[in-house]
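tool=predict chain=A
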Amino acid sequence: MQFANQVVIVTGGTRGIGRGITEAFLNEGATVYATYAHNDQAAESFKSELGELSSHLHLAKFNVASEKECEAFFEKVMGHNDEIHVLVNNSGVRQDNLAVAMTEEEWDKVLDINLKGTYLMSKHAIMAMMKKRYGRIINISSIGEKLGLPGQANYAASKAGQIAYSKSVSKEVAKRKITINNVCPGFIETELISDLDEKLVKEYKDQVPMKRFGSVREVAHAVLFLAHKNASYITGASLDISGGL
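tool=predict ok
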């Protein structure tokens, strides 16, 4: 129960990697606020499957790219808690297309959710954390920001932006004992890659030295490590979870 009595926020916390992270924190005793944008059915189904742990899970539906909605969410959280200990910026979308064919809408949506959402959620979390002089922020970035996969210029830019953002902000908040780090998954078995062509899946697996995709649990373990109080001298860093990719 390493996170007993801690308040944790996981954006996009009801599906895929976010769901795995939420479950990992719940199993370690945390109270978790899992946010989501659209899928009510998936969120409610997730909570109903948790059994006794569901009493420590709070669902929140809103758009992380809206400052007004972020403000309302944090007001609600702080109305029920003295502090926020951990924020995991996991909300992410893909709108793949070749750069020359990419629409402004495809570019804006990915940058808004993946990068602006990280900025807004971190901004309000930091204001709460500074009062208690403690906090852990972990961004779920991607190995894609280094690889630059074709068709993902918007996605790669948003994920590289998260890392650049954390490097700057980590220096601003270090004296307040707030750390901000990144976990960079490679190919992980989630619905985010379920739409990939079978031939492409084989091609990607062949590129991975371990010759397999990673599991959500393996990503969650890395997040818990960086969120722990003992990871106090790690900030502005990025940890690849990519099977050697």
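The chain has one domain: 7-240. The mean pLDDT is 95.
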